[in-house]
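Two quick folds needed for the group meeting slides. Do the first one here.
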Amino acid sequence: MTNPIYITQADKEKLSKLIEESKYNEAKTNIYLKKLEAEINRAIIKSVAQLPTNIVIMNSNVLLEVDGFEEEATLVYPEHANVLKNKISVLSPLGTAILGYEEGSEIEWEVPNGKIKILVKKVNQI
């Protein structure tokens, strides 16, 4: 069974619009857009005030362990993504994978090079 994930109504609306727009612009990434859409559709919607602070939402700073290596990142919308500043797009495979999960969650996720194991070690909502 898959662990539940949580997002805000505002993020759901913005992400749904982003997915629809991206479907036409980025045909090669459709498989990842479909995964994000599936994640959004199964998410439990909460207000920001109702969400625990240990949930990965948009603009959260996170400490991850990806296949045994620690990585710090901020989950952002595509227009704010910047690899040099560790800002990862929610449309990236890693960004989609962590959206809505809480600290301590372990996730196996398919990426272009195969499956990765992700541990959400720490979440700081901004």
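Then this one, please, same format:
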Amino acid sequence: MSHPTSPPASRRRVLLEMRPALDGFAGIPQETRLLFRNLGASPSIEIVGLLQTSLRFLESGTPLSCNDDTAVPISERLNRYSRVIVSLDTKPSGKLLSEIELYLKRRRVAYGLMLSTATHGARRKIPLTLFDSRHFEEYVWQALFSKTLPAEDFADVTSRRFVVCTIPWNIMQSAGLLAAKWRKRPVYPTLDTTGLDVFIAQTPYPGRVAPGTALVIRYHDALPIFMPHAFANKSRHQATHFRALADNVASGAHFACVSESTRQDLLRVFPELETRSVTIPNVVSHHYFPEDSPANRVAPILRTRHNANVADTPSRPPNGPSFRYLLMVSTLEPRKNHSLLISAFAALRATSDPELKLVIVGGKGWNAEPIIRDMQPWIEQDALYALEQVPADELRVLYRHAAVVVCPSLAEGFDFSGVEAMRSGGTVAASDIAVHREIYADAAEYFDSHSVTSLVDCLRRMLQGPEVQRGRAIERGVAVSAQYLPENVLPQWEAFLARIGAAA
């Protein structure tokens, strides 16, 4: 077995943080899966996945220093890889004694890591170990990739190499923040990334990298800085984001921002990053394309993907093969602005479109209770459908047949849903915020994100406009969204990684 970080010299060895991929369907988890797949398709890149969790300690794999399969007997290797999976897949028991023991372990490790880093600096590194995915492809697929990628990607992504960091991401955060209590700034531990050209972290990373490795932060948004009130556990979220970000800046990291709007927010905080930051947009999944699907496919999706966290029983789809509905795809949380859409929907039903329906796709986020309360009366009237865990092939159908896909967020870093809708042949109404104007260009209709009247007027124009106008909007959406296809985004990554890899 060859060393997982020793590809031919002509290829960039790129380690990608996979932690977000262990979570939900959309947003950063989705982007992580797509980025892994698409970087792995490049002939100039050798992609390696970093397995690390936010809170759970992982078992070690086999040493990266082993040069061949005989260094560790196969039975022991397979046992270690199996134990890595157990540690990845085992949730806390919830028992009081176990929770106390886990809390004490986390504190002990955080303090030990802080003291070791403060005493030895970068000389004391957190080791990485190998997880060989051979024989464990099914787990790798289900745990990391199946929520986003199509089945035809199975063999490719599960055959890649992975390395394990046993220490949780949050413990590394705590170690840095503990050091800040008696020093001017946090001191974060160093990962032993020896032999790797680039490490791409999906958010500000609470750690440094070994000499010879370039650190790249995939920067999605600066909302924890500019909108800290929009997050759960505000103090911790703001501190971990800003402190790790500041250390990444100080250690010479490069930043690949998902939009120019996000990049400009970053430069407001750290103007010195002008030459160390670029804009590379998110990749839209190739799952989304203009499919001529029958309208009668919508009703079964509404029945089978019911969100039981919002309502005990699903709304009943109307009889008949087709009906008019608005669609919103987003996690239920305040900054996504569901309440504005629900108010506009109510106004449209009361004044001009009494048969209009509303479909909301998204898991329950923080502070979702007020949104759910707004949804309940309409669910009870069989007018609103709350869905979750909708796979891409079904979501493509919902996008295709929606009268309008609405993206009402107060703030975003990119916003996948509008691009996915355009790729699927849908029309989009979006809040008039800078990132939407940048990403959707003239392929969307815009409204004031604080005005119900503005959204009602926008939707009424779209719903009542001539069919030829809708056709032009769909055509323009397909053209605008094409710039986010893998074949158009991957060359930007290749050029960027080649440039910083050469300078590392």
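Slide caption for protein two: DSSP finds 18 helices and 17 strands in the chain.
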